Amino acid sequence: MSQSPKNTPEITLPAHVAGSGTLDRLVDTARDYARGATSENTNAAYAADWAHFTRWCRRRGAEPLPPSAEVIGLYIANCASPDDRSPALSVSTIERRLSGLAWHYQNRGFTLDRKDRHIATVLAGIKRKHARPPVQKEAVLADDIRAMVATLGFDLRGLRDRAILLLGFAGGLRRSEIVSLDRRKDDTLDGKGWIEILDAGVVLTFRGKTGWREVEIGRGSSQQTCPVHALEHWLHFAKIDIGPVFRRASQDGIRALEARLSDKHVARLIKQSVLAAGIRSDLPEKDRLALFSGHSLRAGLASSAEVDERYVQKHLGHASAEMTRRYQRRRDRFRVNLTKAAGL
Q: Which pairing describes strands 256-260 and 211-218: parallel, antiparallel, or unpaired?
């Protein structure tokens, strides 16, 4: 059985080039850059996808390398309709699995043709039979976020978590974006953005897959809920002037450590503060925990901002208004009435 490829591209010197200290160091540098081409979460997901596929192949006597459209067509069919007690995968998860396999094959010098009929027709049939509307996470609205930050203390962890919630909500940020921020540009190698605090607010600059993106967050009408004020307080008391903005705190809770927070902390913080604030208390705790996630902040901003839709679209960095509307949990769907506009 072929060994599963590592979760990093195989970047090596050509066979005809003699190695040297300088070239070997450049190979390591190139591998680091290639590893950073996709996020840690994506790398972890793709590694899990490949591990699942290779286990499936091993149990059925198939080879994962080189790629076989026929084998992969059978694999995705089995993902949609398992022949054992494992749960069926959703269409979106199957598509993500295909992306993970294609990524691994590419890094091993192979090409997976997803348009091959053995894959494309099976996937089309899976979509036709099993596709369902996406399950959306509940939005954290303005009243909710005020209630959530009110449950936080004013120790160092409370100051940090208050800044995370308010900045994430006002910026419509992904949880990965929140924890990727540095105090200044190029402070760290793993940072994906930085902050610039101005009199009128704060500007966040992010490196994205398609280029640079700026998010402007103005100061709020109340210091208790102003994201910029909360950020300034955290930076001041945590004594952060370089490096990651959001960090772990020491066990005694009196100083900030150097280690950057994981984006999982943001998801846990949202769930914990939702429970503490009594949001959706009409539901059992298990259901409330399942309803809210890191995306709840982003959906909350999209749903709460009473401004022209194009400003929300720009703020969230969406390429289309349709994508922005997917985040709006409450909106007047008939604000533009084409029936009347057409004269009926």
A: unpaired
- Centre a 10 Å sphere on the Cβ of residue 258 and count the other Cβ atoms it contains: 10
Distance from C-alpha of 183 to C-alpha of 165, rounded to nearest angstrom: 18
Which of 14, 4, 27 has its CA nearest to residue 105? 4
Across the strands, what pairs with 260?
A: 247
State the amino acid at position 143 in one-letter form. D
3-state secondary structure 150-164: HCCCCCHHHHHHHHH
| Res 3 pLDDT > 50 | no
pLDDT tens digit sequence for 166-206: 999 988 898 999 999 999 999 998 899 999 999 999 999 99
What's the predicted TM-score (pTM) here? 0.70
Q: Which two tokens stand for residue 339?
A: 């029936």
Q: For 213-261, what is each residue's pLDDT tens digit? A: 899 999 999 989 999 999 999 999 999 999 999 999 998 889 999 999 9
Here the tokens at position 137 are 């996470």
Q: What is the dihedral of CA 334, 336, 338, 344, to 10 degrees?
A: 70
**CA–CA separation, 73 and 65 (whole Å):** 15
Tokens of 105: 């094959």
Length of the chain: 344
75/94 Cα distance (integer angstroms): 10
Residues 19-76: tens digit of each pLDDT:
666 777 787 777 777 766 667 778 888 999 999 999 999 999 999 999 999 999 999 9
* CA gap 124, 130 in Å, rounded: 10
205: which strand partners?
194, 214
What does the alpha-carbon distance between residue 90 and residue 97 come to, in Å, rounded to a whole number?
Answer: 11
Type of residue found at 38: T
Rg of the Cα trace of the chain?
24
